[in-house]
Design brief:
This protein is α/β, with parallel strands linked by helices. The chain contains six helices and six strands, in the order αβαβαβαβαβαβ. The radius of gyration is 17 Å and the shape is globular. It binds NADP nicotinamide-adenine-dinucleotide phosphate (NAP).
Length: 205
C-alpha cells in the first residue's frame, strides 16, 4: 500500500519557522516571501518604499499569510541595525532564515562609472549582505528549525561569468560567492548553513 505523504504543504511545512527576506515588495524577493509564508513561516521583509510595503502587507494579510514589514534602506548601516532590532523583537530574539535578496542591477560601460556609483553598488549589494549576516548571527544561533539556521544570498550568474557593461554589479555578486563560501566554513560549526543562489535572467519589476 502506498504511504500517505500528505499535501505538499504538510511535507514541507515551515510552521513555527521565522525568516527575514530583504527586498520583498517586488520580483524574486516578493515570491520568496509568499512561498515561505505559504509553507507556514512567519516572515519579515523590508524595502525603501513605505507605501508599497504597506500595500504588500495588506495583500498578504488578506491571504492569511503572516508577514510583517518595515522600511529599511539596506545601503545604510543604521537602517540595517534598526531592521535587525525590529526582527529581534518580532521573532523573540530568534531567526531561522535570512535571505539577503535586496540589490540593484546597474548597467554602464566601465570607463564611465563614477566612484559614487561604485561605492553605492558595493554598499547596497555586498556590504549589506556582510553586515546583515553579522547582525543575524546571534539570532541564527537560536534557530529552532531542524538543521539549524540558514542564510541564502541572492547572487547572479553575473557573479561567475563575464558580464560586459555590468562590471560593478558582477563584481558585487562574484564577491558574494566568496563571502558565502567563507561564512559557510566559518559558521558551519555553529550549525548555520550559508548558501548562494545564482539565477540567470528572470523577468521581474
Ligand atoms: N531578475 C533577474 O534577472 C535576476 C537575475 C539574477 C539575480 N538577481 C538578483 O535577485 C535579487 C532580486 O532581483 P529582482 O529582479 O527581483 O529585483 P527587483 O524586482 O528590482 O526588486 C528588488 C527589491 O529589492 C528592494 N530594494 C532595492 N534596493 C534596496 C535597498 N537599497 N534597500 C532595501 N530594499 C531595496 C526593492 O524595493 P525598493 O526599490 O522599493 O527599495 C524591491 O523590493 C537581486 O539580488 C538581484 O541581483 C536577479
Amino acid at each position: 500500500m502506498a504511504a500517505d505523504c500528505g499535501s505538499r504543504e504538510e511535507m514541507w511545512s515551515l510552521a513555527g519557522a521565522t525568516a527575514l527576506v530583504t527586498g520583498g515588495t517586488k520580483g524574486i524577493g516578493h515570491a520568496i516571501v509568499e512561498e515561505l509564508a505559504r509553507f507556514g513561516a512567519r516572515v519579515h521583509t523590508c524595502s525603501r518604499n513605505a507605501a508599497e510595503l504597506e500595500e504588500c502587507r495588506r495583500r498578504w494579510e488578506e491571504k492569511n499569510l503572516q508577514v510583517t514589514v518595515s522600511v529599511c534602506d539596506v545601503s545604510i548601516r543604521a537602517d540595517r541595525e534598526k531592521l535587525m532590532e525590529t526582527v529581534c523583537q518580532t521573532f523573540d530574539s530568534k531567526l531561522d532564515m535570512l535571505v539577503n535578496n535586496a540589490a540593484q542591477l546597474f548597467y554602464k560601460p566601465t570607463v564611465g562609472c563614477t566612484s559614487e556609483e561604485y561605492s553605492n553598488l558595493m554598499t547596497t549589494n555586498l556590504e549589506s549582505t556582510f553586515h546583515l549576516s553579522q547582525l543575524a548571527h546571534p539570532l541564527l544561533l537560536h534557530a529552532s528549525i531542524v538543521g539549524g539556521g540558514s542564510i541564502i544570498n541572492m547572487s547572479s550568474i553575473g557573479g561567475s561569468i563575464g558580464f560586459a557593461g555590468y562590471t560593478i554589479y558582477a563584481t558585487t555578486k562574484g564577491a558574494m560567492h566568496q563571502l558565502t563560501r567563507s561564512l559557510a566554513t566559518e559558521w558551519g560549526p555553529d550549525k548555520i548553513r550559508v548558501n548562494a543562489i545564482a539565477p540567470g535572467f528572470i523577468t521581474t519589476d
